[in-house]
Amino acid sequence: MVLTTIVSRDAQYHHLVPTVHVVDTTRVAPERVLEAARNFSGRRADLWPDVHVEHLHVHERGDDFAVVTEGNPWPIGHVWERLRYDWSTPGVVSGTVLESNIFTPGSTWELSARPTDAGTRVEVVAVRHLRGIRGWMLYPFFPLGLAKRSVAEHLRHFLSVLEASGP
After folding, report:
1. Strand 19-26 to strand 92-100: parallel, antiparallel, or no bridges (unpaired)?
2. pLDDT-derived band at 5, boundaries 50, 70, 90
3. Do residues 20 and 153 touch, judged by C-beta distance below 8 A?
4. pTM, to two decimals
5. What DSSP designation does 27 have?
6. Tens of pLDDT along 116-167?
7. Counting beta carbons within 10 angstroms of the beta carbon of residue 19, is it exposed (0 to 12), middle (13 to 18) or buried (19 or more)?
8. Are 28 and 167 in contact (CB under 8 A)?
9. Could you give the 3-state DSSP secondary structure of residue 54?
10. Following DSSP, what letter does each residue of 52-86 receive, concatenated?
11. End-to-end CA distance of the chain, in Å?
């Protein structure tokens, strides 16, 4: 009986997993935004506040993909994920979780950059299925909008670093 309750809650939890959707604009050209999103050098830690270079490892890289482990310390402990990044679709860099201590494999995020009259519209869509004790600890923050705010702040930081170096 307890197992049924847990499975039921888990199924409900996965049904309620949020899609975080954030949009921002920049004067930086779309290709520069996408190029920076595909940058897995030590500069990645400067671009994205949630990437720490000591937890960044590129396992494999091809013409339109990379397999990368990224992680960082959080108040709930070290969080990491191994993703397969793909940029075979024009205008898009996507990541799919292969392994993680907080996200279920198959969780995704996608960054798209499209030209506008004023520069570039950048959109991030993340579908993050949380797992394990750390995931359950973070779950309450999603309905409160804190995950969206965090993604929006990280995207704005990313774009600000690019804007500081010119369009």
Report:
1. unpaired
2. very low
3. no
4. 0.84
5. S
6. 999 999 999 999 888 888 777 777 666 556 678 888 999 999 999 999 987 6
7. exposed
8. yes
9. helix
10. -GGG-EEEEE-SSEEEEEEEEEETTEEEEEEEEEE
11. 60
- Which tokens belong to 72? 């960082």
DSSP state at residue 39 = -
Assess contact for 34 and 91: CB atoms under 8 A: yes
Give the pLDDT mean for 101-125.
95
- Which DSSP string corresponds to 94-161? EEEEEEESSB-TT-EEEEEEEEETTEEEEEEEEE--B-HHHHHHHGGGTTTTHHHHHHHHHHHHHHHH
18 DSSP assignment: P
* DSSP letter assigned to residue 17: P
**Burial (CB count <10 Å: 0-12, 13-18, 19+), residue 70:** buried
CATH superfamily of 18-164: START domain (3.30.530.20)
Rounded distance between C-alpha atoms, residue 110 and residue 71, angstroms: 18
Q: Are 129 and 104 in contact (CB under 8 A)?
A: yes
Spatial neighbors of 125 by CB under 8 A, at least 6 apart, are 19, 20, 21, 108, 109, 110
- Residue 141 exposed, middle or buried by CB count within 10 Å (0-12, 13-18, 19+): middle
Q: Which amino acid is at 161?
A: V
